[in-house]
């Protein structure tokens, strides 16, 4: 039993150091958020959560019996090939470096055989060497490319470190001039200047033989700039030119763009296709539920949000939109409670404030509605249909003021 617990502890230690290496590199190489899952491939339920600035850690209750983990840093895909390689390599190399250093340091402190500290030193030396052996095997296992991906809890594929490095190496590079333009576009994106970034990508794409990654970057920027129709055109091109490399993430983004351009029927079909796979892409439950809400299918929306909550997929978002569906079905008290619970889970969830604002707007409580919408805008100005609700609320307030009505 002792050996079993010791082996589990070493696997846990090496696993934590591995994901910590990825996270440290991501924090140093890009400015976006970093999420680390320890002891699971993405399940949020049954875990402790810790937020440290841009770093969020999910530690599964059963992490000591190591069942995998991964580091999520979306902005790394747009950080360039060299930065991406450093991010990938940091995972297997950090535990190898630290356990090797520990084994060397312990080895240099060897006491005399007769000394009372000899047995503790021998135990420490054995543990250090065992940890180094586990780290070496883990590094070899992770750096040998494997084309078959693992499946995250939400259905997304996860390639091992070696395959990610190989894919990055094979990726064609842009010319020096286009690379400079792309770097400038990325600088604007990192500064939140999406309109300027989108303008540069609009100039880059006709000149380049675009890679799948470049098209992905452009889709992201056009989406953030609110240029959904153009983003959809680029996404369609990505699906056509790189059909064999399209991932569920790409399909999910395509479905979202269909919805944002008012094509809710095709969007529902695209989300359903992702959920009907052998490994369902569980993030689609939230978005399909939201699309059902846009079409007034609130009962169907509730079923999807309930499924998302059962799987622990973006619970704050699911509670916020489940709450709005309940309100639209006449269950205002339960709906407001669900929205409040979502905001308690994530106070920065703009949809919670937006949906609370919709409730007050429908009741004619325009000042409160305006306050909610403005709070949502401060958190995320790209929140869907938020500008429409703000404009409608301000019009009602202006009409009330003009006729001497309540403000």
Give a short summary of the structure.
With 407 residues, this protein is an alpha+beta fold. It is 66% helix and 6% strand.
Order of helices and strands: HEEEEHHEEHHHHHHHHHHHHHH
Q: What is the annotated CATH architecture of the largest domain?
A: Alpha Horseshoe
> Judging from the principal axes of the Cα atoms, what is the shape?
globular
Q: Sheet with the most strands?
A: 4 strands, mixed
Main CATH class of the largest domain: Mainly Alpha
CATH homology superfamily of the largest domain: Tetratricopeptide repeat domain
Summarize model confidence as the mean pLDDT. Answer: 88
Spatial ordering of strands, largest sheet = 2-3-1-4
Distance between the termini: 71 Å
* CATH-derived topology of the largest domain: Serine Threonine Protein Phosphatase 5, Tetratricopeptide repeat
* Count of folded domains: 2
- Helix amount, in percent? 55-70%
Overall SS class: alpha+beta
Number of DSSP strand runs: 6
Beta strand % = 5-15%
Unreliable residue runs: none
Rg over CA atoms, rounded to whole Å, is 25 Å
Q: How many helix segments? A: 17
Question: What topology does this entry show?
Answer:
Elements: H1 2-29, E1 34-38, E2 47-52, E3 55-60, E4 69-72, H2 81-108, H3 118-143, E5 150-151, E6 157-158, H4 161-170, H5 176-190, H6 194-204, H7 212-224, H8 228-241, H9 248-260, H10 264-275, H11 283-294, H12 298-311, H13 315-328, H14 332-345, H15 350-362, H16 366-379, H17 386-402
Parallel strand pairs: 1-3
Antiparallel strand pairs: 1-4, 2-3, 5-6
Helix pairs in contact: 1-2, 1-3, 2-3, 2-4, 5-6, 6-7, 7-8, 8-9, 9-10, 10-11, 11-12, 11-13, 12-13, 13-14, 13-15, 14-15, 15-16, 16-17
